Every structure is written in C-alpha cells, then in structure tokens.
Amino acid sequence: MRVTKELMKKILPTILLSVFLLSAMTVPIMSLDVTVGVSVGDWFKYETRILEWIAEPDVPFPPDQFTEVFYTYNETDWQKLTITDIAGSNVIFDVLLHWKNGTETTYELEEDITSGTWTYVIGANLEAGDQVKTEYVLSPIITYPPRYINETILVDYETGTRETNVLDYEHPTLVPEASIHSTTLWDKETGVLVKNRGEILNNTSLLGHYYSITYEVELIETNRWTVIPEFPTGTAMLLIFVAITVSISILRKRPKWKRR
C-alpha cells in the first residue's frame, strides 16, 4: 500500500492517540512541588469498560495495534494496581490484569505524578486552580499545556464523604475532525484516580477509517477506604457528564457508521 500525504494526515491522530494512552513518550518541561499521598503497599482495584464503539463497516475492534489498550479495557473483569516503590514523584505499580477468560497477567507501571497526559495518581491535597500537570511534549508537533484542577466535589462512600478533585479536559488534536475529551476524578487526600471517562470522536485508524469510542475506568475497591458499589452518587457527577455530552455533541460529524 502506498502511503500518501492524505493518508498520513489521517493516521497521525491515531499515532498520537496511542502515545497519549500508553504514555510512551515523557518529556516534562518542568517539575511540580507536590506531596505524594500514597504509600508502598497501597492497592487500588479498577473496572474498565467500553461504553460505546461506533465505526465504519468492517473496521475491527480495536482498530489497530496502537489502540490495543481498548482491548484490555473490554476483555478484563478488573485490574489491580499495587504500589511497590516510590522514588521522588515517581510511583511504581505492579499491575494485575484479571481477564474474562479466567487468566491473569502482570506488568510493571511507573508514573510521574507531575507530568504526562493521564495517570492513576497525582499530587495529594490539591485545590481548585492548582496545577495538576506540567506542560508536556507529546510529540514534536503537539504539546499539552499545563492542566489545572477545575473544581472539588464531594463523593459519598460507605466510610463517609470524601473530597474529590475534577479535571475536565479537551485534549489537543492535529485535525479539527477529531475530538478527545476526558473527565478525570482523583481522591483529594491521596491523589488516587477514582474515575476517568473519555470520549474519542472521529478519529482514524491506520487505514484511514473513522471510528469513535467512549471508555470508562472506575475504582471499585481499595485498602485505603471502602468503596460503595454504585459510584459516584449525587447530582454533581451527573451535571459534569451531561456537560461533556452537550459540548461534544456539536463536534460530531459522523459518516454512516454502524454500532457494534
């Protein structure tokens, strides 16, 4: 297959998205003075799910090798992250994946809580307006500006109400047809991820096929506090997700796709 300029324009967003999801490149511009709110031995269990997958006919799921993280999201019952080491602002996790076929696999994950695109843990006790991530170079042609906590909401658990920081963010893209939006919630005291919902619209596979996907990552159990089965409660999260839906709907320019 001959790679044309038009095809390259289509596949670049997918390549960049893969780096965003897998954090393959980390080029921080500066560091943040943050407090680590977790300890070695802490563990966090998450459910990951695909809420919507819309694509042109004959587009496979996931669409290419750069988006295989979505296969993991769809084919695991849960994943458990256990902190094995902390070095400065770097947190090292042992990740256990429990697949729907009953098998389990593990790998090591290292995250810098001050840089990158999206992580399982950020600085502890941040306030609305505080910087949560530094400027970040995703590639030579795309850069994430610094990101800041939008607001702090209250989330109810069995053991009581906990303050939770929210980052509602429109990710940079190369072409206007593509849109990547996410809403991420971290527990304020620990900085640990409790929920992430992302919607990727009008992206393209390596062959230039359009697809859209909505995914969710949700904390269901931890040794730090008791998580209720239905998370979160209250009208605050409902309003957040409604706002996302409304803002994104105006960006949709779908061709004739079919739902799978």
Proportion of residues in extended strands: 35-45%
What letter string, H or E per element, gives the SSE order?
A: HEHEEEEEEEEEEEEHE
Average pLDDT rating: 79
State the helicity in percent bands: 10-25%
Q: What is the C-alpha radius of gyration, as a whole number of Å?
A: 18 Å
List the total number of helices.
3
Task: Please report the distance between the alpha carbons of the first and last residues.
Answer: 28 Å
Gross morphology is globular
What's the number of domains? 1
User: What's the main sheet like?
Assistant: 10 strands, antiparallel
pLDDT < 50 stretches: 1-5, 19-30, 231-235, 250-260
What is the strand tally?
Answer: 14
What class do helices, strands and sheet pairing give?
Answer: alpha+beta
List keywords for this structure.
alpha+beta; 14 strands; ten-stranded antiparallel β-sheet; globular; two-stranded antiparallel sheet; 260 residues; 43% strand; disordered C terminus
Describe the structure.
The protein has 3 helices and 14 strands. Helix content is 15%, strand content 43%.
Characterize this entry briefly.
By secondary structure, this protein is of the alpha+beta class.
Detail the topology: elements first, then pairings.
Layout: H1 5-22, E1 43-55, H2 69-75, E2 76-87, E3 90-99, E4 104-112, E5 131-133, E6 136-139, E7 142-144, E8 147-148, E9 151-157, E10 160-171, E11 179-187, E12 193-204, E13 210-222, H3 235-249, E14 258-259
Antiparallel strand pairs: 1-2, 1-13, 1-14, 2-3, 3-4, 5-8, 6-7, 9-10, 10-11, 11-12, 12-13
